[in-house]
Description:
Number of strands: 0
Structural class: mainly alpha
Largest sheet: none
CATH superfamily of the largest domain: MFS general substrate transporter like domains
Low-confidence stretches: 500-504, 506-511
Number of helices: 20
Shape: globular
Distance between the termini: 19 Å
CATH topology of the largest domain: Growth Hormone, Chain: A
Number of domains: 3
Strand content: under 5%
Amino acid sequence: xxxxxxxxxxxxxxxxxxxxxxxxxxxxxxxxxxxxxxxxxxxxxxxxxxxxxxxxxxxxxxxxxxxxxxxxxxxxxxxxxxxxxxxxxxxxxxxxxxxxxxxxxxxxxxxxxxxxxxxxxxxxxxxxxxxxxxxxxxxxxxxxxxxxxxxxxxxxxxxxxxxxxxxxxxxxxxxxxxxxxxxxxxxxxxxxxxxxxxxxxxxxxxxxxxxxxxxxxxxxxxxxxxxxxxxxxxxxxxxxxxxxxxxxxxxxxxxxxxxxxxxxxxxxxxxxxxxxxxxxxxxxxxxxxxxxxxxxxxxxxxxxxxxxxxxxxxxxxxxxxxxxxxxxxxxxxxxxxxxxxxxxxxxxxxxxxxxxxxxxxxxxxxxxxxxxxxxxxxxxxxxxxxxxxxxxxxxxxxxxxxxxxxxxxxxxxxxxxxxxxxxxxxxxxxxxxxxxxxxxxxxxxxxxxxxxxxxxxxxxxxxxxxxxxxxxxxxxxxxxxxxxxxxxxxxxxxxxxxxxxxxxxxxxxxx
Length: 511
């Protein structure tokens, strides 16, 4: 007879507060470097490709290492992996802060990505251990998601404050005050449970998964930055081939890196799909909205950042309220409705951003934030509930990987649609030098820079044409995203995804 779930007490909730530290940090570290890029460029003088690698290498290695790190945590202990990863994250952050050249900073950022991959799966798996009852776990995951959302908002703000008074490397030292309390309090308040110590780690599977995910992520980023190219196509084909080999190997192993049986659970598969779609919408829209606010509306980076706060508040409210909604309605219905709400936010920006400007964009992002946060909170809960306790780390890593790929796809697809429309619609005044005309057609920022150097009449014509072309591309991209999310919400509500998952059965048993 199974033991009754044990309600969490004071110690467990303190443990959740400890887990909030790495959650906030990883989220902040994803966005904090954007503000520091001009300062570190002036100090280290990286080339264009080196600056791109400084920005991207962290996300590449984070995405590639998530699944192996989740499986390692299941085998050596999630708390142990979390504390080891935290120690290395702090050390590599100091290394990045005092980098003396671009190569050293790229290496430190790469190592930070690997260390960061130990943190998120471990925190989610430990929540699965700390909170045994379904309702308390739902609340805990809502708080975890709210912390992750807040980190994305606080990152640029904290970075701006540090850069105002200190040198560019100070943004990396922010990790130290987060990691020290974790290392001191973690052994006391976080439980340790080794679930699969007798199952060896299959290193060929690790190599296949890392290579496949790195190749696919690289292909999506190449597609977003340069459009369809031979490099992107080759990387995508190589990644998909490695992924196929990885899946075939997992079916034959007695202790696979990823248990494909997890995907037979409707709740698990549906949650992964919903999380990917939510991050697809959020990341793609956030990229375009940031450019729209600065280059079309004309805001400074600080003002544009402050206008993201309403969407962040909506996200935090949704994270904390999702558990209550799931108790009144099935999680599947709530997720389907949240996907539809996300689609409505995209549709609002597509239809009204030209007529109503800033109010339409901010209102759309608020709807988007509320919908995406609801999906993510309940989706993560469904993933952890569907996975056996001994595979919680691997399941959490799969969830984070699907979200990373969804976000990369959002940037690639919606960004590419916006860029294609911009390039098709912009009109460059006659007589503009060929090199300048090419730069103007390449990006809106390039067009505004070129317009500033032309005569008043030609410059105004180029600026207005470029902004109008970008606004039209923005609306088209938002419209495509809205159609995709609306179709997904209907599919979610009307197909096999509507069957009750283990999550709903657990709720029914507790009621």
